[in-house]
Amino acid sequence: MTQSLNGYVQVGHGPRKVLAMNGWFGSADDWQALVPALDTDTFTYVFFDYRGYGRSRDRDGAFTFEEAATDVLALADHLGWDTFSLIGHSMGGVAIQRVLLAAPKRIERMAGVCAVPACGSRMDETRLAAFRATVDDVERRAAIIAFSTGNRLTPRWSMHIAHESQRLARADAFAGYLPNWAANDFSAQIEGNATPVKLFIGEHDPTITADLMSRTWLAWYPNSTLQTLANAGHYPMYEVPVALATALENWLKEA
Fold first, then answer.
1. Cβ contacts of 172 within 8 Å, gap of 6 or more
2. Whole-angstrom distance, CA of residue 72 vs CA of residue 18
3. What are the φ and ψ backbone dihedral angles of 59, each rounded to 5 degrees?
4. Would you give the distance in Å from CA 131 to the centre of its chain?
5. Beta bridge partners of 104
6. DSSP line for 97-156
7. Confidence check: pLDDT of 85 > 50
8. 3-state helix, strand, coil in the chain (%, to 5)
9. pLDDT digit string (tens) for 182-201?
10. Is 82 exposed, middle or buried (0-12, 13-18, 19+ CB in 10 A)?
């Protein structure tokens, strides 16, 4: 019997393998604006959809990142990837670290794009409840998206991303992943990990800041560096896609 796999988008045919994991409000389609700028002769990219999201919307599950890590490794096996690099946006930063813990010898490098650290967002119950309320409230989703990009972009765009998130992610999956990135701390398991890590933050992101990165990712991964992207908030793949693609590949090609 053929093993069921998560949905994904594959771009490129190069020998270097890279898998990207999106954020809470996103899907594999988040990365499409980068595609015209990607070196598809050097790299093969896979843009992954979690269970309950996008092309995996009909896949049931526990909606945890441990489960997602198992799904990523099953997909990598299916594709014949022995080793590969990871990119994670926002909650995807937590997800890629779970993949690293599950198969440390298979991960070449990790890039975090406005990435939540292994300690999670350290939300208390009040804030967690406020985020939980967005499951059934698209206007609250749009407000969070607007805030995370510095309240500097058109409200129509924030509402568009909010509606897309509601369309592409099942409510039970959207709710299920929340505590995994908002209130779960596994930093003790990754502290001192030698995997090369590059962190990208947006200059207008009010939450994923250089100070936070210094206290978390940069403190825990000895081979990590940080780059700030100009004219971007929490969604640089939409705000500055060519600049992000260039910065990512410049770093990936250093290996």
1. 52, 63
2. 11
3. -85, 120
4. 18
5. none
6. HHHHHH-GGGEEEEEEES---TTTT---HHHHHHHHGGGG-HHHHHHHHHHHTTT-S-HH
7. yes
8. 50, 15, 35
9. 999 999 999 999 999 999 99
10. exposed
Query: Mind listing the domains of the chain with CATH numbers?
Result: 8-252 (3.40.50.1820)
Mean pLDDT of the chain: 97
d(CA 152, CA 175): 27
Yes or no: say if 165 and 141 are a contact pair by the CB < 8 Å rule.
Answer: yes
Cβ atoms 100, 107 nearer than 8 A: yes
Token pair recorded at residue 253: 């090609």
156 Cβ contact list (under 8 Å, min separation 6) = none
Q: Are 86 and 59 in contact (CB under 8 A)?
A: no
Q: What distances in angstroms separate CA 125 from CA 76, 179, 185, one per listed residue?
A: 36, 10, 15
Query: pLDDT, tens digit, for every residue of 118-172?
Result: 999 998 899 899 999 999 999 999 999 999 999 999 999 999 999 999 999 999 9
Residue with tokens 């058109």: 154
Using pLDDT thresholds of 50, 70 and 90, give the confidence band for residue 1: very low
Per-residue confidence (pLDDT) for residue 15, from 0 to 100: 98
pLDDT by residue (tens digit) across 203-224? 999 999 999 999 999 999 999 9
The CB density around residue 110, as the number of other CB atoms within 10 Å, is 24
